[in-house]
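Quick check before the chapter quiz. The format below is the same one you will see on the exam, so make sure you can read both the input and the output lines.
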Amino acid sequence: MSRNLRPLGPLALLLTSSAIAAPRPPTATFFCPAPAFVRYSPHAVKIKTMPDAPACAPGGKCVPCESLDKSHLLTHEQLDAELATMPLWEAKDDDGTKKITRSYTARSFQKAVDSVVAIGHIAERENHHPDLHITSYRNVEIVIYTHSIGGISANDIALAKMIDREVEIDYSPKWLKSHPEAAK
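Here is the expected output.
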């Protein structure tokens, strides 16, 4: 392991390992502050974050999850109404816990990692963190729910909409052909 990767942590190794073999030009530039391990990577992340990006609650950040209780869970009707406007997302029941998920196949491993990093920036900004999974080197799954109340709140819907609006995902052409609703 290279000495210059040690202080950056395991994610930095993941993000920079492909850059060691074959440097590539950046795919885009940041419009928001980025951690050092991304800012200096040869692989910039596509994110359309604006300084006045909308937040979960009017005029501020997501409502702190610690202040939420079960009364903040969305009803089935509210959830169905929201998901009707979000064709890339679906509701899942995981051992009695309602969650919303979105899955896609990126063009390459690096594009999958780039999209996860861009989602991470939004999650940090909003202090609301989804579960993110990369499997089979380029299949990404985003799972969102409010952990502290064990279900879906308005924060989760707002975060999903921010991800849809702000993250530019470089999809696999084959996946995109079978999911035309993902084309922007």
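If your answer matched, good. The CA atoms of residues 109 and 136 lie 9 Å apart.
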